[in-house]
Specification:
Elements (H helix, E strand, L loop, with lengths): L1 H21 L18 H9 L3 H12 L16 H8 L11 E6 L6 E6 L5 E8 L13 H8 L4 E5 L2 E9 L2 E8 L12 E5 L6
Antiparallel strand pairs: 1-2, 2-3, 3-7, 4-5, 5-6, 6-7
Helix pairs in contact: 3-5
């Protein structure tokens, strides 16, 4: 019974933090004394209204110049994974040593994040999967077409399995990737599944 209560407490703590982070009011910094500020209802509403279309894509690109993604202030190539553990506890998937990935899925429309971590414990890849409940806002509301209309054609297009990846270079140190399906059914539109901000030098 005790373990069940602890698991429930951990889940609700993560959900509460996710709500704050999606609202854009939390920051991961490489310092154990950092704390999250509470988001107001008006801030949440403003944040959701800004998570659409061209304006949102421009925000993503602007943050990527700094090595960041929407939803948190971790910096690719600089922030240690220990700062994430301090805020969210152990990951849902991928905890380990060496070069590895860790994932947090908050469920209930709160979104999901993943982190590529090098052997020194520094995050080199930030991933935001958005949330799957309301796909009219956030990452999954975007399409490859809307990305091209806003940022132009990428200089590089990669394919990995069933994924198509548009790669932009907002800054010398970072790659911004929009990842989605390489093919869709006739009459369907290819939506973005997730975005990455990747610091290649830190991945080694």
């Amino acid at each position: 019974m005790k373990s069940t209560n602890q698991s429930s407490l951990k889940l609700w703590s993560k959900l509460a933090l996710a709500g704050v982070i999606v609202a854009g009011s939390a920051a991961f910094v490489p310092h154990p004394q950092a704390h999250a500020a509470s988001a107001t209802a008006s801030t949440t509403a403003a944040s959701l209204s800004a998570q659409k279309g061209s304006a949102y894509i421009k925000t993503i690109y602007s943050l990527a110049k700094q090595g960041k993604i929407p939803g948190l202030n971790a910096i690719a190539g600089k922030t240690p994974i220990s700062a994430v553990h301090y805020k969210w506890g152990e990951p849902d998937t991928g905890a380990g040593k060496g070069n590895h990935y860790e994932g947090y899925n908050f469920g209930m429309g709160k979104g999901a994040f993943a982190f590529g971590v090098n052997a020194s414990g520094i995050i080199y890849d930030l991933r935001n999967f958005g949330e799957s409940v309301d796909q009219s806002v956030g990452i999954k509301s975007l399409t490859f077409t809307s990305v091209i209309q806003t940022l132009g054609m990428p200089k590089e297009v990669r394919f990995n399995g069933t994924d198509k990846i548009y790669v932009y270079h907002p800054a010398a140190a970072y790659e911004l990737k929009f990842v989605g399906p390489s093919t869709v059914a006739k009459g369907k539109v290819a939506h973005i599944d997730h975005i990455n901000v990747y610091a290649a030098k830190a991945a080694k």
